[in-house]
Write a structure and sequence with these properties.
13% strand; globular; 238 residues; alpha/beta
């Protein structure tokens, strides 16, 4: 089941749904908790106690949205899934309305930074399936997509590529999660901004704001290991 379009949701319903997801991501409830997803009436009371004239329509819309949300969560949305086969990536991308894939190297510090941002977004942006795969294990797909810079994040909507981010271009390595979220919303991959002032993981760029050291995950100039290895030469993948 696909998530309702941002344009079709009543603003109060959208805010209520987003707040509900944020609360769940910060204080996960047990799967057997009957009140974890279904209490649309009390959620709406908390969000909009005054304007009762639209209550019935909003309650119906919120109930439908919560049901769709629950279906997505049961289909492995809401978290970042690590895959080991590029065939799995292609199958999910072609079968899922909205998909984001992070091509990464396990030794690159900047890939770990990107992972932290995506892990903060995934529980809230359940409309998107978040995936990650080691670039070396997806050699054919990486070559077809021209992935030569890591981290590389690619987003698809209905099987069509809508965004590609090489390194942290456009936001800088020291960006906040909400900065990355804004870029992905503008691309059309994410429905709307949901994190607000919350979920703001950030990593300060020790290079003074210049994104460098991503180039050449296939070549000899690849850098980006964890801090303790940053002064050492990285291996040539080829």
């Amino acid at each position: 089941m696909s998530a309702p379009s941002s344009a079709t949701l009543d603003p109060v319903v959208a805010r209520t749904l987003d707040a509900h997801l944020l609360q769940k991501s910060q204080q996960p409830t047990r799967e057997d908790d009957p009140a974890s997803d279904s209490d649309a009436d009390s959620l709406l009371d908390a969000a909009d106690p005054i304007f009762a004239s639209h209550r019935a329509a909003r309650l119906q819309q919120l109930s439908t949205a919560l049901s769709a949300q629950k279906s997505l969560l049961s289909a492995s949305h809401g978290a970042v899934t690590t895959l080991s086969l590029e065939k799995e990536v292609m199958e999910i991308v072609t079968a899922t309305p909205r998909t984001l894939v992070h091509f990464y190297h396990p030794d690159f510090h900047r890939c770990a930074v990107m992972d932290r941002h995506l892990e903060a977004m995934a529980p809230v942006h359940v409309e998107v399936r978040f995936l990650r795969i080691e670039a070396a294990k997806a050699a054919w797909l990486s070559g077809k997509l021209g992935v030569r810079v890591l981290p590389c994040v690619v987003g698809w909507v209905d099987g069509k590529e809508v965004t590609r981010m090489l390194g942290f271009e456009g936001v800088g390595e020291g960006c906040r999660t909400v900065d990355l979220e804004e870029v992905l919303v503008r691309s059309g991959l994410l429905l709307r901004e949901k994190l607000g002032s919350q979920g703001n993981f950030s990593s300060h760029n020790k290079g003074g704001g210049k994104d460098e050291g991503y180039l050449g995950w296939r070549g000899k100039q690849a850098r980006g290991r964890k801090d303790k290895d940053e002064d050492e030469d990285d291996d040539d993948w080829d």
